[in-house]
Amino acid sequence: MITGDEAGFNAFVQARSAALSRTAYLLTGDHHLAQDLVQAALLQAAKHWGRIHTSPEAYVRRAIYHQNISWWRRRQITETQLVSHDRAVESSDTDLRLTLDQALARLTPKQRTVLVLRFYEDLTEVETARALGVSAGTVKSTSRHALRRLRTLAPELADLIGADA
Amino acid sequence: MTDELRATLHRIADEATPLPVADDLWQRGRAARRRGQAFAVAAALALVVSVGGIATLTTTDREADTASTEKIEGGAIPSRIEDPGELELESDLAVGRASVAFFSAAGQPVVIGATDGRYHALDLPDLSPDRGPLVLSPDGRHLAWRSNGRIHSADLDDGTATYFPSSEEHAEVTDLRWVPNSSQLLWNGRNEEGEKTGGVLPVGDQAGRPLFPSALRGVPSPNGEVVALASGKTDAAPFLRRRGRRADRELPADLYPGGASIQPLGWAAEDLVVAQAFAGPGADVQGQHLVLFTSPDRPEQEWTYRVITRDVPQNAVPLSIAVDLIPDLDGTSSQQLTHDFGSESGAEEGQGELPYVLGGLVTLLAGLAYIRMLHKQA
Q1: Cys-Cys with B198: which of A68, B9, B48, B188 at CB 3.0–4.6 Å?
Q2: C-beta separation of B81 from B136 below 8 A
């Protein structure tokens, strides 16, 4: 028998999982990891549904942001094969979308998350800070560094990002 | 200008094809919640029982020898490693230090708790459908697996998982191994051009030592001077010294008249290799089993060869062992290298100490009722 809570959860998943998946894909750059990220967040939502059912999306999105950063950062892993982390991405493809996708993959998870929240989710600096549990100043500086790094990694994106960013 | 960035991000996101999420998320989430509540109740009951000083009433002689009540300081390799059948998947990877990892016959990634011998089937993120290598660090605190070119590592103490994205160098990963101090992961695979490649990745904050290229061919010893190699049916386990020189270590012919295949799993000490051996009919020890033997670095008169355990799942090839849990050899053949956690390790029962705690509480209440009855009669 399906309870009201379960029906509510299923309705939320059906209505919002595609949008959540798009955000997760931007955060990870990988379909499978995006799916894992969304599923992990939804699992937490199901676990605490009684407490969060009135505004589940905010909870799930916060879980996605934090989980993404923790998957990458908690153990501070860096790959030794990367000779130069700031080396420009080779791009023979003139499609800006592909170039931006590749350059985003070279950002730190925190930088990437801040950019996605600021420019995809359209959150303000204060809202972004609240979602990530950091100060607005940190969001501002992280965003500035991320954009500067995108310009270094992919100079052809200068028009897209803006020279003064 | 950032409007264009915003628009491009939306185009990238819109082109992503959302993958379907599992349809049992609600059930799994609620089950996790119930488990959490049950463990909280169990913890409270256990506290009541222990404060009441009647813990002995709840502990039978059998339990004293089992995983349910006994914690082995630091952990140990279980004397029997069984296929647990299908277990409920645990999404919380913080199961603590593990002694053994393998894929069960049901295809689940299973680890065995080092201190309590309990079996845990883990819901590992991004687990490849073809399973692939599942490797436990020598200290039993990290678990690594791969999916295509991505290499994942989970910290079993705090449950955090992280991964190396696939790169030009490892577009596909076929093999993973840990170096002896658990600080680095060795991988073999193929690059984007399909050429064979290999490399080393640091794990966590630990600094790894430089390795010789030969390390990529097997399992390097703690000082990196010798590499234990895998072999098919053979009379002697192969090793590689620096500059690619081969060295062999003969296997005991009385145990394996027709030879055995050897898969090194790690190093228990500077000159002691832990391996999974397989011998066919006619051998004194048949099938899959775990062994410990000295490397050819030691003088032949000091060589030793010990069977760690014969009771391993025959279809789990190879097992992954936290080799640091193997005790230092004391020179006697009677030394126990493993621990008998008993049959209540969770392989059949699957979950929890709750039944025992409840049993203890019932015993407590019955005792109190009996005392009350005697008091009334008096």
Answers
A1: B188
A2: no
- The proportion of chain B whose per-residue pLDDT surpasses 70, expressed as a percent, equals 80
Q: What is the pLDDT of residues B150-207, one digit of tens each?
A: 888 899 998 888 888 887 788 889 999 998 888 888 999 888 888 888 888 877 655 5
* Whole-angstrom distance, CA of residue B195 vs CA of residue B191: 6
ipTM reported for the complex, 2 dp: 0.79
Segment B2-17, tens digit of pLDDT = 777 888 888 888 877 7
Q: Where are the domains of chain A?
A: 4-73, 96-161
Q: What pLDDT sits at residue A71?
A: 62
Find the largest Cα–Cα distance for chain A: 58
Confidence of residue B370 (pLDDT cuts 50, 70, 90): low
- Interface A:B, Cβ pairs < 8 A: 154
Quote the pLDDT of residue B371: 66
Measured CA to CA, the distance from residue B44 to residue B38 in angstroms comes to 10
Tens-place pLDDT, residues B94-123: 999 999 999 998 889 999 999 999 999 998
Residues of chain A with Cβ-Cβ distance to B163 below 8 Å are 33, 71-72
Other Cβ atoms within 10 Å of B311 Cβ, number? 13
- Are A32 and B163 a contacting pair at CB < 8 A? no
Establish if A6 touches chain B: CB-CB under 8 angstroms: yes
Kindly report the nearest CA distance between residue B32 and chain A, in angstroms: 7
What B9-13 contacts at long range (C-beta under 8 Å, 24+ apart), as own/partner pairs, is B9/A26, B9/A100, B9/A115, B9/A116, B9/A119, B9/A120, B10/A120, B11/A97, B12/A25, B12/A26, B12/A97, B12/A100, B12/A101, B13/A22, B13/A23, B13/A25, B13/A26, B13/A120
Q: Which of B109, B116, B41, B44 is nearest to B78 (CA)?
A: B116
Nearest CA in chain A to B128: A32
CATH topology of domain A96-161: Arc Repressor Mutant, subunit A (1.10.10)
The torsion of the CA quartet B200, B126, A38, A122, rounded to 10 degrees, works out to 30
Kindly indicate the confidence band of residue B298, based on its pLDDT and cuts at 50, 70 and 90: confident
Cβ–Cβ below 8 Å for A119 and B5: yes
Among chain B residues, CA nearest to A71: B162
B27 to chain A: closest CA residue:
A46
